[in-house]
Amino acid sequence: MNQWILDTHDQFIDQRFGGWSAAARANVTADLKGTQDNLLVWFNNKAPHALPSYLNSIHNAVLRDNVKSKGGDPSKVGISTYTHPMAVDSDGLTKTTM
Predict the structure, then answer these.
(1) pTM of this prediction?
(2) CB neighbours (10 Å) of residue 43?
(3) For the chain, what is the domain count?
């Protein structure tokens, strides 16, 4: 985990719900396809909208960067995400709720 996040945890305890950053290149073998570049999305699991929100923001950043690099207008593209988290505790989880 990013040291800055750890160092500032107490300062932003009820204000920071997630974020994203570029991570170091992965040590991958030639058998894996795709990129070696990594993006890291981190989130506070006590904020139910944090994961889809921050994941969507990084996907939009990648999409818009790719559109711009191909000469397109990044302001004309985007991915929308809708989320409606269920407030269910572990006692309320059943096959019916899933």
Answers:
(1) 0.65
(2) 19
(3) 1
